[in-house]
Design brief:
Two copies of one chain form a homodimer. Chain A is built from 26 helices and six strands. The first copy, chain A, is mainly alpha-helical and about 575 residues long. In chain A, helix 1 crosses helix 2. The longest helix of chain A is centred in the middle third of the chain and has 35 residues, at about 200-235. Chains A and B meet through helix 1, helix 5, helix 12 and helix 14 of A and helix 1, helix 5, helix 12 and helix 14 of B.
Chain lengths: ~575, ~575
Amino acid sequence: MHGHDALSFLLALATLLGVARLLGELARAVGLPLVVGELLTGILLGPTVLKRLFPAAQTWLFPTGTAADMLSGYTTFSVVLLLVVAGLEIDLGVVRRRGRSALTVAALGIAMPLVGGLVLGFAVPDSVLGATQNRTLFALFMGVALSISALPVIAKTLLDLGLFKTDVGLLVMTVAMLDDLVGWMAFSILLGPMRGGRVEVAILVRTIVLAATFALVCLFPGRRLVDWVLGALERSPDHAPGRILSFVAVLAMLGASFTQAIGIHAVLGGFIVGAMVGDSKRLRERTRLTIHQFVTNIFAPVFFASVALRVDFVKSFDLVLCVVVFVVATLAKLVGCAGGARLTGLGWRESLAVGFGLNARGAMEIILAILAREAKLIDDRVFVALVTMAVGTSLLAGPMMKRLLYAPKLDSNAMLDDAARLVNDGAFIPSLKATTSAHAIEELGRALTETIGELVEPALISVLERELDAPTGLGDDVAIPHAAVEGLARPVVALGLSRAGVDFDAPDGRPARIVFLLLLPPKAYENEIRVLAALARSVFDAAARESLLRAQTLEDAVHSLEEHGRRIRDRVPRTRSLADL
Amino acid sequence: MHGHDALSFLLALATLLGVARLLGELARAVGLPLVVGELLTGILLGPTVLKRLFPAAQTWLFPTGTAADMLSGYTTFSVVLLLVVAGLEIDLGVVRRRGRSALTVAALGIAMPLVGGLVLGFAVPDSVLGATQNRTLFALFMGVALSISALPVIAKTLLDLGLFKTDVGLLVMTVAMLDDLVGWMAFSILLGPMRGGRVEVAILVRTIVLAATFALVCLFPGRRLVDWVLGALERSPDHAPGRILSFVAVLAMLGASFTQAIGIHAVLGGFIVGAMVGDSKRLRERTRLTIHQFVTNIFAPVFFASVALRVDFVKSFDLVLCVVVFVVATLAKLVGCAGGARLTGLGWRESLAVGFGLNARGAMEIILAILAREAKLIDDRVFVALVTMAVGTSLLAGPMMKRLLYAPKLDSNAMLDDAARLVNDGAFIPSLKATTSAHAIEELGRALTETIGELVEPALISVLERELDAPTGLGDDVAIPHAAVEGLARPVVALGLSRAGVDFDAPDGRPARIVFLLLLPPKAYENEIRVLAALARSVFDAAARESLLRAQTLEDAVHSLEEHGRRIRDRVPRTRSLADL
């Protein structure tokens, strides 16, 4: 460590991280994604602004040479960890269980953007092609780039709309996972021959075989091995979280080294390792959170901020290109995903909502664009267009889904939107005896015997199966186990409160103290979404939950729900989704 | 990011982290400090072993050039964060409150090693001096190097021996903090002129003034400012931990840049920022833990492993020098600290225990040695000798303190060592009403009215004051509030159980469910230590605690304590301290 280089490195790091976090928070405050603020940092501190105004200061703050290499060590580590975090979101269990209908949507959701990308690739003038001037590669890349989805953005949007655990929500998540798996594989494979600038069939085949083998080995025997190792590490109570953290980091770096060595990009290794590790039930929420926090707050901002340090966004901004890329990307995803969803039996509103949800590209697209630019496959104009498209599609997702799924005319049917009335017509248990989610479901189900008679047994079976499929803890102390029940004419709810809380595997790791058991008539996706959202909204704020938790009788509970219902009736939940990665 | 360099970097990182964590855990398993395994990694993979056996493989795995610079970006970031974590351990409140007696010990604990270092510095042959060949600087550095203490090692040792919250324990901790503050300041100031190889008075004065100003500004107005900012960040419930993480990282990098820029080393900035931030009560235990986990498991191992990558430990091992440094270091610290402790009124056994505790140098000494070697102030032989001394003194601390404080002959007084008898002669509350530590203390104190009569009031005041001074939550659900009470002839205990738990600010953040109120005759340090240890040991294992928590009557409680007392009577608590940083 030489004094001067260390100083440059530390100062550049402090500046990038500090400004990126500040601008990120500002962006979030005005409803933009965090990543927009982080990218803006590079625009301000890079050639676009600072270098124009104070070239000497810019060169002093971000020198080339050793200090730049030190910084690139940091950003390399960052991007691999970023993809590990992305991989951690993949839940192979859900993909397996929800596979059939998801496959249709995913296949169309990849095929249509691929077509769009190819069209785009062959329509653009030569001047837009990257340094390689290889139109086939460029078109293929654009196809892959348009097919990617932003799993974290989608997950957050669904959570905020109260749709995360609905069938529509699960479908969207599963499709996004499949899209991401296929997209990153395809992209990584393209990067190999890309580097040379020509597609050599032999190299391409070798790369595909190696990448596929790597992914299969990791995701099947590797996943079981990791699960076993994590189990062994967990059993040693001392220092287990620390050991697991090291284990994940080493695996990620090894995976990244391997994929880099076989000629595909390091990020694929990180991504696959993330998926391999994240699937293990033994990876505790706490460990996941620790990794996530460090990556989001210490590594990712510097990575995104450093991007625009080397690109002049003003000079490279091509309005026509930006609009074309945005329109093609959105149309292709909408046609593919909404069409696929319609084929699986969803209504057109739900299908379009699925399309807009999956249209969000988020930070993943930006990472892809950065790597493609580094590989000289795209020039700065296409890069800027892809970044703009990523931000734009992410911004569009929440409001469009909200508009489609919470359309005003549907709200006229007051009964469905009224949590209080549903509970009043259903059942209420002020203090659940159950300590597990299965027992809580049974206890609530039995309480509905008067209401639904002999449908209780089949209803319980459906709900328990649905719960096994994907647990329904929403976080914030609330869980809504639910299922469609053959023979039911209208939605039925039983509400139970639990002082000690019952674990419903919520994303925030907290046990549920408010449990709504919801039974729905079959094939009523619209109802499902709206009733679920109504229930979730009725306990949206902490005050409403605290008031409800004090209820001792059905009257108390109904009264509490009515009171808070009135207050929020006309408010649609704010989407925080856009504010995140 | 160029493909080949990225690969080299990622592979080197994976190898260093993986091997260092493996060897670290192995070292821990055989009772050695973690850092020994991490250092061994560099020895195995560096010039000492791998380069001797397979020079080509070594150069391939750890190339020079860009990849090496990328790795050095990672290790630079690591060492700054390492010092932040060290700084976080500094509790300025304790230093202020415990200042008087601690100052004596700290002053002597710095003066004696300084004398020892100077003697050593002027006695060694020319050949041992570093490249600068400046004997004055070398002697000053050795003085500073011998005066440093390893706060984390000391804290862990005290925790394991059940002494952390005793007066002896607090004294040792406070002295270690003072030693560290002074030592790191002095070392950083020395590094400035060191670089030139000559001591220029003007530069030295400038450096001292700047460093002192920096430290004072950070630790007084800065500390309050940080506290205010953390408070503001805490109040925004969304994403607060993430924001605080970023804030701490940016502050650390800025502090490090500043100290580096004014000609002292970056690590001082990290250390001072750590102390400034760590003192804030608003820094939640969770955030502290997240930082600590990432540093210990992702950053520190690579830093320590990369050290020996550039040093040939076999060629540079000078047995005579190692022994001399070890002996001088130990003698100087023992004379200084044990002497100082004796002056403040401790018995000789306790004083010697204080001396051995503060003699532990741990990883801090190793960091110091690394930086001095990089500044070319010491050569590889002195470097190896300092590392050996650091490991040796850390290994010695636990066993020596144990031997001195738990001497068998003292155990003959069975009464004192018998938690069961103490509780039997005292009081028992099976279910505390109190929900705060102050109320719990009062409740337990009132229960002793029959036993100690009118001493209850003064006793309560002493215990409450003592609790304010430093909370007595030991962790693992146990708290032992205690104080010396004028007029008391023998130790008196009241035991209270609490289902909900009472917060005694334990290091593990968990509320206490088992609370021993312990009143002691004044000036009985030996008793204090032994009774406290006896109480702590009586609930050492989880089974003992669970059995005790089921007690409904005094008889149940005494029976439970007796039963588990028999089982562990002859076991002395195992020190885990040595196994950590």
